[in-house]
Amino acid sequence: MATPTDSSTETGAETGTETGAEERPSMDLLRFATAGSVDDGKSTLIGRLLLDSKSIFEDQLEAVEATSQSKGYDYTDLALLTDGLRSEREQGITIDVAYRYFATPSRKFIIADTPGHVQYTRNMVTGASTADLGLVLVDARQGLTEQSRRHAVILSLLRVPHLVLAVNKMDLIDYDQATYDQIRRDFTAFATKLNIPDLEVIPISALKGDNVVNRSENMPWYQGSSLMHHLENVHVASDRDLVDTRFPVQYVVRPKSDEFHDYRGYAGQVAGGVLKPGDEVVVLPSGMTSKIEAIDLFDEEIGEAFPPMSVTVRLADDVDVSRGDMIARVNNAPKPAQDIDAMICWMTTEPLRPRQKLAIKHTTRTGRVLVKDIQYRLDVNTLHRDQETKELGLNEIGRVQLRTTVPLLADAYSKNRTTGSFILIDEATGVTVGAGMINGTA
Amino acid sequence: MTQTHADYRLSQLDQLEAESIHIFREVAAEFEKPVLMFSGGKDSIVMMRLAEKAFYPAKIPFPVLQVDTGYDFPEVLETRDHWVSRLGVRLIVASVEQAIADGVVVDDGKTSRNRLQIGTLLNAIEENGFTAAFGGGRRDEEKARAKERVYSHRDDFGQWDPKNQRPELWSLYNGRIHGGEHMRIFPLSNWTELDIWHYLAQEQVEIPSIYFSHQRRVFQRDGMWLSESEFNPTRDGEEVQERTVRFRTVGDLTLTGCVESEADTIDKIIDEIAIARVTERGATRGDDRFSEAAMEDRKKEGYF
Fold first, then answer.
1. Among the CATH numbers 3.40.50.620, 2.60.40.2310, 3.30.1490.100, 3.60.20.10, which is that of B12-191+294-301?
2. Chain B interface includes A84 (CB < 8 A)
3. Is Aminoacyl-tRNA synthetase found in the keyword set (chain B) (predicted)?
């Protein structure tokens, strides 16, 4: 029976010299969400990123070439690479969020590719929820459109910390600097109204490859980096909160075996801060205090745990802890709260209305909520707050007051995207109908 | 993993592991009767490893289900048995042969064993009352999978409705199901083929020997090298010869082709994949080649 143990001892010294079997495990990860319509060349751009990073294989490319040819196109339609479902190919539209993967020697990338038109808000919110960076495409000939503003608003609401505006199709305007400058000025002015800590505006041609992987010779006036260079180097490690310790308990590990007779560990994924053995901690919502005895990562005791590690925490005292509880620091813990003020993106056809009752999932905690009030509906195109309409329709976003049956152990979403987010579930159908971002609690 | 991290950074592989372990624990906490679908392939080996880590030092709190096509590689079954005994988990084998005998699925001589697995699997899920079934599917494998959720809802016929999937946000998974329905769970959604190999290299766990280069009697069919076997009689003009090969995927041996390769260690396999120009399924899976939408169709019916 072959095992890698055998094989690695055989090869020993030559490990990792060729393709970096050594360097790859240290690669980091960037998740980004793309937004744009069929017409601004988003699929072409993604196709190019995949192609130029050698993430597309011959058989995939051949299939796409054959389809392009049979449809009588002049060039290979890279967009075909990303249209996964048959009904999408038939209708020539993208229906759903699709996830794509590529890697360069320093970073692995996960793209949440969201459609521009159909169900755009629901899909963009979904794609943006896990993204470190948002990539918005505009057609240089069109300039900023209502749609590009809308995309920026959604990325900002979801607190995606980095944003790139790719001004595409520069080749079709003769790489004109003035047009690029105008779009950049318009967008920067608009962005001041939003929460966008980091913004880059990059002139590209997805079709021709200008400034996608390599700096373009057609735009010597542009001094910034290529899109790929930016994606590879944007600093995401500091986006996490390493100060405020938040550990939602997911699962209680009790082996009940002879060897680990008294073992009782609280498993979960660190949502914020750094946990260390010896830390004085409080268990919420009970308020009981204890000390971290040890932190287990599989069969190893580790000295520190930080986001997004999945670990098992053991406490020094025999306190009552179960799923849905949270471990935090004695002097830095969220206050259990049942009145929630949140932005909600509504994702189903039957509108959200006051007095409605729904199920909620927040970290590892589930309960029920009553919709107390819909304060306003946000027009994601104009940022206008409509206080007249007391309901939220499909793909609408608004500010809502909720009352929960169980206290939530929550932070503001602006502070922590894990402890500040929740989903709403229709109890009859079981379907996820809303996504919430907490403004504050009382 | 070192004791402390001066810069509090996790490698992407550690991040993937943490995310997958989170998913395993979430399912174990929220579902009444989960089961882990185990094929013996490299992806399901990674699944077993992650499940082991998620609940350690407790045992994996759910059984393992294997659909036996009757045409499985003996090396794969051997690896399966080693894993099952090492982890002390309960193994349930759902046999396609038995399902044919019981009339659960119909062997018309034309339908591949791979396709007959669907009915066998759904029957096993229903009979045992499983509410969640972990699968090793990855989104990078195939276009239809790129849009599948981590929690993939199946109706009471076990079918997937790609146009009506639940939105999946943050790491907040919605496990609500009605009686008769179940959820397919894909903890490896965000892993790529290379990630799987790097993880296997890092973890140093046992995988089936057929992944490594070896001598095998093979013949060529439809541009693929297939293994000589009593289950796979050669047809006119097909000539059996000995070649140095390895398998990139494991499945029904009548359909799973091997590639000529000298890669006899994981590092060499990684090198080989890094320069490979054909997807693993396109290269070696007869079942995915029949149409561009082959995988989508099988998934809708209830495939892994």
1. 3.40.50.620
2. yes
3. no
